[in-house]
Amino acid sequence: MGKYFGTDGFRGEANVTLTVDHAFKVGRFLGYYFGQDGHRPQIVIGKDTRRSSYMFEYSLVAGLTASGADVYLLHVTTTPSVSYVVRSEGFDCGIMISASHNPFYDNGIKLINAKGHKMEAEVEDKIEAYIDGLVDEIPLAKRVDIGATTDYSMGRNLYVGYLISQATRSFKNMRVGLDCSNGSAYAIAKNVFNALGAHTYVINNWPDGTNINRNCGSTCIEILQNYVKENKLDVGFAFDGDADRCIAVDDKGNVVDGDLILYVCGTYMRQQGKLNKNTIVTTVMSNLGLYKALDREGINYEKTAVGDKYVNECMVKNRYSLGGEQSGHIIFSKHSTTGDGVLTALKIMESMIEQKQPLSKLVEPVTIFPQLLVNCRVADKTAAQEDPDVIAAVKAVEESLGDDGRILVRPSGTEPLIRVMVEAETDEICEKYVDQVVQVLKANGHVTE
Prior knowledge:
By secondary structure, this protein is α/β, with parallel strands linked by helices. The chain has 15 helices and 19 strands. The strands form five sheets. It has a seven-stranded mixed beta sheet, with helices on both faces. Strands 9-8-10-11-12 form a five-stranded mixed beta sheet, with helices on both faces. Strand 13, helix 9 and strand 14 (300-304) form a beta-alpha-beta unit. The protein is globular.
């Protein structure tokens, strides 16, 4: 990860750690970079419903057009829709303005390459060098070379049509709840499910610029759980701010997270002969219960570092068809190059309808292990993780847990934290072993708070 760009773009508090000047310079560099071969770059921009998204959109447009790029505005839309439009309509790159599941006062700039994948790290490195004044100033476009801006809301409509085309059956008579998190999904999800014939019940679908992700969506799933039970719905789907995540709620009101979604869709795809190489890509944070269930089914799996970026890289490299994260980033490589919350919801619906089973029945074979995660703020992440006493404590826990649990100790990618996670058969066992490792970190002076 670079100085500004992490695993999911350039993210920070609006006008504090991510400013309009940053956005302008990102636009200036991208317009220049994609126009170096002499052609006029074409770049598409989408945004979520945060108040600051308009501010950053205009700043990016100013930078891009000043460098000679033409800009196409999708307006409020989802991250996966930008990815789809970029690769299907031949744009040089795409930009999504969003901080995903973060509160409204944060925002971010996500860059998408011409193939619909996250932008290459080497391009982000060059942008960072330009922001910090480490490269020569970029020339300004003049006269007819100055870029133009075009309303391209039709691109969002193309994406909606694409989603509708992915359904294998009508959703007639299905009672479906949608929690749009007052974010990007508000402009898309209901239209898709209505077009497919579902009786659609929608909540948190009235964004005001400050209520995105506030007590709603995939990070506050209890709201949808209660809504599904109160209205006796067949299933519910909650999205995050830019709708690249999906967490489901089954007909009994139980949470179906990314791990369970991978199981439901993976086993169904294997039955259909569509699970390439009989393998699902997960991250190291996936629950042990998922792995035990996949072992029973004879389905292989790979584990990557946390981040859908790493999941996607593994999928592309090995031509796998399904992968994702516990948080609800699910990638179906035949249909998308990034996590897509609405597409994930459609694939879950397909699994239910084609197998004539409620979601609660489809997840029954998976027993999710209790999991406890404690974040320890430390002075030096490397020193804490490489401390011989910490390593010994972790090894002792591994030996004690055996095949009935696991421990994972890893540094945060964005904060001065060491994350200590234990999965085991009971909450009490999790607490016991997490505390053992945390106490060693404290005793050796690594913990600062």
